[in-house]
Amino acid sequence: MKTHKLFPKVDALLHGGDYNPEQWLDRPDILEEDVWLMKEAGVNTVTLGVFSWSVYEPREGEYHFEWLHKILDTLYENGIYTVMATPSGARPAWLDETYPEALRMNLKRVRNLHGVRHNHCITSPKYRQLVHDMDVRLAKEVGSHPGIILWHISNEFGGECACPLCEKKFQDWLRNRYDNDIDKLNHAWWTTFWSHRYNDFSQINAPAAHGEQSIHGLNLDWKRFTTDNTREFMEAEMAVFRELTPDIPITTNFMHMYSALDYNKLSKPLDVISWDSYPRYGNPEESLYDTSMENALDHVMMRSFKHDRPFMMMESVPSLVNWHEYNKAKRPGVHKVTALQAIACGSDTVQYFQWRKSRGSFEQFHGAVLDHLGRSDTRVFRDVAEVGRLLKALKPVQGSIVESKAAILFDWDNRWALEDCAAFSKLTKQYTKTCLDMFKLFQKNGVDVDVIAPTEDFSGYRLLAIPMMYLMKPGVADRLKAFVSAGGQVVMTYISGYVDESTLCYLGGFPGDGLTELFGLYVEETDTLYPQDVNGVRFTGLPGVSEDTVFAARDYCDVIKVQGADTAAVYTEDFYAGEPAVTVNGYGQGKAWYVGARVEQAAMEQVLLAAMREADIPVKDLPEGVEYHRRSGDDAVFDFYLNYTTEPVTVETEPGVDLISGRSVSGQVKLEGLGVMVCQVQP
Ligand code: GLA
Ligand code: ZN
Asked: What stretch of H or E contains 632?
């Protein structure tokens, strides 16, 4: 069974979003209007209670859930399901007044005042207790309601706390990690340097601008601790629902490429992955296609956390946001193609923040389905209603999944270590952009690719792309060797395999941990270039690529010594002119490709295409500005074509039925500007 319906009782793709009726309890007319307008917009789900604590419990021990029951009932009677959130993302003022330990302390060790949200100490036993009690109350109040399909834990977990409670917990976390042996820690952090040796775990502080910030191992462990502590907080919330409502699945909503928490670790205990998508549509620096590629990378990363099931786009906006530097309205047609992009990438939902614009406070001008104008005959409302209709037409897609034959390895530990290391250039490391560039090349060639952690299972993939894996975790090198040995293709870039999980350099040649053997080379030097510097790379015998073409190489150039690898391209300039820049090494049944320089996209594309040929991964000829994905279900496959240009294009399709137009299609099909085709391919 491939098909995996997230919510067995909902026979549809979900359409809806955050609904905050507690802001309108004194306006029954508006609450009544909401329900019939939701139906008009094709909304079949809402998310309730994300920020409802001060209405549930306006004073400690005084509870009000009557309104919630009423809303849940009314929605359910009208065919609208509910994602029920826990309110731990923001706290009432009385709570912080009574229990100041719940307030977060920043890295300068200044205690925050009450305000905004996500401002809680992650460790505070008192806050955890209050959240627990509230969650129990909520589960008992509404957990048996037939309209509730999912628990939504807190909201966009984020940030860190350096209060004494957290610092003490960090020390205990370190004791555990280093077997209570301070010398193990001293070795891992290389503290003899600058005379930084510790005698006891109690001497260790969280990193701070006015304190210790120069020990990379400490900085990295602090980030790991913050993720583990956040996960523990989240799991403590989850435990309540696992016990009281074991049949209701659980999610929490993630953010765009969020840097402060390791989402791979956070994703593990969840049943469903969901995230909030707010790209800068219409920005002047890039095309709609490019902005959408950034969004696609996020979608795909979320999908890849649990690639055996659909994910959820929990929030997005039908018009504009209020927190970008410039808050531009989505142009006509853009909402449709960007909403359906989520479905194309493997989401079974299109949800918004929020249903109705707030009247006051911070998000009063954030786009919503319903404006302050209060009418449904607006452009935005019509766009939303159109998406509602399209999602109905796309119902056969529900539960189908994307099966990628290629994966990009992405790792938070690596991201943190690479950003923190004092080397290369502060400005051009650009790890996430490098991953995005790699991702775009797969998309350009119509190849679905997952984005996975290096600790995940590689079986099922035929090609692994590894951009800038500076920190190589234990065991990964051996697993890569086994993967290639058994016939896999690996494409790895410069600045990979420098340090181990403690940020200690691998000795004896980069890429370390035995990868010199896999790639048949070692890197003798890595040259960091100034932005004005350009080297050249010329392929020497890659099928289909002229030996006369010189591709630009910028930012980073490895000086490589081959030990068995074949040279696929050489540098054209500088003291390493004529030396290998790209190599390929046969290893067992497969091949290990090494790209030693930050070459321009056209050159990287040639290497990936060569590796895809070897991996027997078919590519698709797509017009510029078109995104393609395939979702597979038990009985059918669905090919999505999204045209981000405003001009008509022609795409090539297998015979099938376009679920959007209802027409049979085959061969060359015209797609309107900003048009979408979802071809259910004939079995
Ligand atoms: C986030 C939050 C929402 C809202 C939106 C606005 O995703 O989860 O509560 O603030 O941003 O874009
Ligand atoms: Zn704290």
From this structure: strand 626-632
Fill in the DSSP letter of residue 354.
-
pLDDT tens readout for residues 256-287: 999 999 999 999 999 999 999 999 999 999 99
Q: How far is the CA of 161 from the centre of ligand 2 (A)?
A: 4
Examine residue 103 and state whether it is found in any structural domain, yes or no.
Answer: no
Q: Is residue 330 part of a domain?
A: yes
Look-up of token digits 């555990």 = 176
Is pTM beyond 0.90? Reply is yes
Name the packing angle between helices 28-40 and 66-77 (round to 10°): 30
If we measure between CA atoms, which residue out of 3, 68, 70, 10 comes closest to residue 44? 10
CA of 50, closest atom in ligand 1:
9
Instruction: State whether 331 and 281 are in the same domain.
Output: yes
Question: Which atom of ligand 1 is the closest one to the Cα of 51?
Answer: 9
Q: Which of 156, 167, 501, 579 does the annotation list as catalytic?
A: 156
- Residue 310 belongs to what domain range? 14-88+127-157+230-397
pLDDT at 683 over 80: no
CA–chain centroid gap for 610, Å, is: 28
* 401-435 residues labelled b (16+ CB within 10 A) or e (exposed): bbebbbbbbbbbbbbbbbebbeebeeebbbbbebb
Crossing angle, helix 334-345 and helix 379-393, to 10 degrees?
30
- Residue 459 shares a structural domain with residue 554: yes
Give the number of the ligand closest to the Cα of residue 159. Answer: 2
Q: Please answer whether residues 338 and 352 qualify as being in contact, where contact means their C-beta atoms are separated by less than 8 angstroms.
A: no
The answer to whether 156 is a known catalytic residue is: yes
Is residue 62 annotated as part of the catalytic site, yes or no?
no
